[in-house]
């Protein structure tokens, strides 16, 4: 991926001060879609993500706050359990998919661990 190709990123943060937390939330709300508390999905190139992180660095206190950005693969898979903050299908991408937010069918592997569809056991 070149620095100009758009990709999806998960931006997560843990901000200690409630006032800074509000500023970070408002900042991120203009740039991405909230998928959980303090977690946003952002569509951006590497260059745009670096600029976004530089802007966040001006808002946070790096001594006590934590901001992380994770680049997602082109076709990510994920499972959900419980109530989502967003209605199903609201994420701005065709490649992401989710299972029912009310119940997830489970399968047990040989050790008795419950695995939801599409999820592989990690060794």
Integer-rounded radius of gyration = 17 Å
Main sheet properties: 4 strands, antiparallel
Percent helix range: 10-25%
Strands of the widest sheet, in order across it, are 2-3-1-4
Q: Uncertain spans, ≥5 residues at pLDDT below 50?
A: 93-123
The mean pLDDT is 76
* H/I helix tally: 2
Description:
The chain has 123 residues and is of the alpha+beta class. It folds into two domains: 7-71, Alpha-Beta Plaits (2-Layer Sandwich), CATH 3.30.70; 74-123, no CATH class. Helices cover 21% and strands 23% of the residues. It has a four-stranded antiparallel beta sheet. A hairpin with a 2-residue loop joins strand 2 and strand 3 (39-44).
Compact summary:
The chain is of the alpha+beta class and 123 residues long.
Topology:
Layout: E1 7-14, H1 18-29, E2 33-36, E3 39-44, H2 46-59, E4 66-71, E5 107-108, E6 114-115
Antiparallel strand pairs: 1-3, 1-4, 2-3, 5-6
Task: Name its key features.
disordered C terminus, alpha+beta, Alpha-Beta Plaits, two-stranded antiparallel sheet, 21% helix, 123 residues
